[in-house]
Design goal:
The complex is a heterotrimer of chains A (224), B (223) and C (236). Chain B is an alpha/beta fold. Chain B has one domain: Rossmann fold, CATH 3.40.50.300. Helices cover 31% and strands 27% of the residues of chain B. The radius of gyration of chain B is 17 Å and the shape is globular. The chains are: A mainly alpha (224), B alpha/beta (223), C mainly alpha (236). The interface between A and B is medium-sized, with 22 and 25 residues.
Chain lengths: 224, 223, 236
């Protein structure tokens, strides 16, 4: 089977497993929305302040809970399953790409629903023509966050406290994604050009993709 | 890239020369000299902690030796060549490995697709292993015996040239044990080789032409 | 199954009747046509409270009796309660956007407390999914179900405890604060939506029994496993 066919098959099965487990829809997403509720309740009833912080809270909650989406595969991964894929002749790079594809689909869905919830709860003042640039920025952030999560999962494979360690790796490295995503909206509001921020996201995603594919085999060998 | 039925691998021996391996900084295997020819069944006996599972993982090319050298199906251990031969190796681990959220049939379909195998063989494999009536059972609802049979079906589909069995008979009824025996026989008939590990020598003596005994990572006797 | 079908069909008729009353009743002078939404919003929230109350009762009964049917009732009622709460929140937001100019108002304690209650019961369902053992699942759910109901009176009386945009109770012990025709439409919808809840609850319980029977059938794995056909190994 070709590289891309393997990647698509890995993604297909991963999405099927997630459909059956329902971790994102039933657990992560509801509690991310609860995360959105916490900030205004803590801030008190200052509607203009709530409206102002909405987008920032979205990105903060999106990244923190998005890590759970990005790392969910790591929770189900173990040495025996990695060995099985190795002996089925699956290229580790194809596994990385496949997981990135499935994870990105889930992450985009997660962030879109979270965005909708933020807009309803915070009533932020959104600039003219916001949907397309924001959705594009959100998509690129979702892909980057998924790549980070998949990489972090591979780096920490087989280690104790894997989930906590992986989270520690992801958060600082996700900062360019947060900046790129949030500044896309800010730049639109200030009418100062969104292209540099979108390019930052594209560059980050490409760098992570290259790193993931190039490091896939060494990371797999190191995890044994 | 070698094709699934590349016969140039037939006749390639598997050899370890003075091989040793470590895990987690601890030396598990030391100075092993092993040769496994096609058509052979090698048994490896030994107590818990002797290194039997590590030996199988070494032969499966999943770990590299840190002493000596080794070749598995013609590929040097620790070299990129192992990626070409892994698809010809089958491993039945101590615990059956299936994706719990998928049904038995879906697990086999997934393996067959990744290997580019004909999906029609899945129905035949399910019938042969006695799981045709349970094919839609999810992995997490299967008994241990059903999971073992699922693995056997997967190995029937993937047709390994080197079959590695780690305590494969443990916890199985007579029917399932006979199935594993049939898998071994087929591998041998197709000029493959089999390495079986068990803490119970009685399992090995009836089935293996040679039996090694491993103790504390060292080869002590060959019978 | 026939009983369930009859119940659901008659519940459908009841809901349609309620909608008809909602459309023919007079509207509020200030809210206009949007006041009709309250004929759905209030009954949905009432039924959500009822559902969570049923859950609490069933949870306590499970803790006392330890029989499966109480656990079945508790979770079926939570599932419906979550759906009715979501619908109540949604209709409330539509009404709020039309009448207050904003779908969500942080100044309204009932809105925020209802959202919190909603997510607590989402957590109840998530907890159940995480526990494969039926006995342990029933026990932990029962404890949560019995405790979580404390939110219902807090949500209901929040409009009295805190000054907010949300209107206080329209139907009180000393009489109603709305015209007779509007009150009639509201009461018809209360009855219809409550009947809908009971019909759906019976249907869900029936489904749960079928799911358990199916799971038991699948669990009888050995019947589905046959002796291997060793002579056909070469055919694979």
């Amino acid at each position: 089977m070709s590289f891309w066919a393997q990647a698509v098959e890995i993604a297909r099965v991963d999405l099927r497993v997630e459909r059956r487990l329902g971790d994102i829809l039933r657990v992560v997403l509801p509690f991310a929305v609860v995360g959105l509720l916490v900030f205004p309740l803590a801030l008190g009833v200052d509607l203009s302040a709530i409206s102002l912080i909405g987008p920032a809270v979205f990105w903060a909650v999106g990244i923190l809970f998005g890590m759970q989406v990005a790392l969910r595969q790591a929770a189900h991964d173990n040495r025996e399953r990695r060995d099985l894929y190795a002996l089925l002749g699956v290229d580790p790079a194809a596994r990385f790409v496949g997981r990135t594809i499935s994870g990105s689909v889930l992450m985009v869905g997660f962030l879109v629903v979270l965005l909708a919830a933020m807009i309803v709860l915070y009533s932020p003042r959104l600039p003219e023509g916001w949907p397309i640039p924001v959705i594009v920025g959100l998509f690129l952030t979702a892909v980057g966050l998924t790549e980070l999560g998949t990489l972090a999962g591979e780096v920490t494979a087989g280690l104790r406290n894997r989930t906590a360690l992986a989270s520690l790796i992801i958060v600082p490295l996700a900062l360019p994604l947060v900046i790129g995503g949030s500044q896309t909206l800010e730049s639109l509001a200030r009418d100062t050009g969104i292209l540099p921020w979108l390019l930052l996201l594209v560059a980050t995603d490409l760098a992570l993709a290259v790193a993931g594919v190039a490091m896939a085999r060494p990371l797999e060998e190191a995890s044994r | 890239m070698l094709s699934p039925d590349d016969t140039s691998l037939v006749g390639s021996n598997t050899i370890l020369e003075g091989a040793g391996a470590s895990l987690g900084g601890r030396s598990i295997l030391h100075g092993l000299d092993v040769e496994i020819s096609p058509g052979q069944v090698l048994g490896v006996a030994g107590p818990n902690g002797a290194g039997k599972t590590t030996l199988l993982r070494l032969l499966a090319t999943l770990i590299s030796p840190d002493q000596g050298s080794g070749f598995v199906l013609g590929a040097r251990l620790g070299s990129p060549d192992v990626y070409d031969v892994r698809r010809f190796i089958g491993l039945m681990s101590h615990t059956p490995v299936v994706i719990a959220e998928l049904t038995i049939r879906e697990n086999l379909e997934h393996a067959a697709r990744l290997r580019g195998e004909d999906p029609k063989r899945i129905d035949t494999a399910l019938r042969v292993v006695g799981l045709a009536g349970a094919a839609e059972t999810r992995g997490d609802a299967c008994s241990f015996g059903m999971l073992r049979r699922t693995e056997a079906a997967r190995l029937l589909i993937t047709r390994p040239r080197l079959l590695l069995l780690d305590e494969a008979f443990s916890g199985l009824d007579v029917d399932a044990q006979e199935l594993i025996d049939a898998l071994i026989r087929r591998t041998i008939e197709q000029e493959g080789a089999v390495v079986m590990v068990s803490h119970d020598e009685a399992h090995l003596i009836d089935r293996a032409a040679r039996v090694m005994t491993l103790s504390a990572g060292r080869l002590e006797t060959v019978t | 199954m026939n009983r369930v079908r009859i119940l659901l069909a008659t519940a459908g008729i009841a809901v349609l009747t309620g909608l008809w009353f909602a459309f023919i009743s007079p509207v509020d002078r200030l809210q206009g046509e949007f006041s009709r939404i309250l004929n759905l919003h209030a009954p949905f929230m009432w039924v959500a409270f009822l559902a969570f109350g049923v859950t609490a009762f069933a949870s306590i009964m499970w803790l006392i009796r330890r029989t499966l049917r109480w656990d079945r009732l508790a979770v079926a009622s939570v599932e419906l309660g979550v759906v009715f709460t979501a619908t109540g929140l949604f209709t409330g937001m539509v009404w709020g956007q039309a009448v207050w100019g904003r779908a969500w108002d942080w100044a309204d304690p009932r809105m925020a407390s209802t959202a919190v209650m909603f997510f607590v019961y989402i957590g109840y369902l998530a907890l159940r999914r995480a526990i494969p053992d039926p006995e342990m699942r029933a026990k932990r759910s029962a404890l949560l179900g019995a405790i979580a109901v404390i939110q219902v009176p807090l949500v209901y009386f929040s409009v009295n405890l805190f000054r907010s945009l949300h209107q206080t109770q329209s139907i009180r012990p000393d009489g109603a604060t709305m015209p007779r025709e509007m009150l009639t439409a509201l009461l018809v919808n209360f009855v219809a939506i409550t009947y809908l809840y009971f019909a759906l609850l019976v249907g869900r319980l029936h489904l749960a029994r079928l799911e358990e029977a199916s799971a038991a059938e699948t669990a009888r794995g050995p019947d589905a496993v046959t002796p291997p056909r060793l002579s056909e190994v070469k055919d694979v």
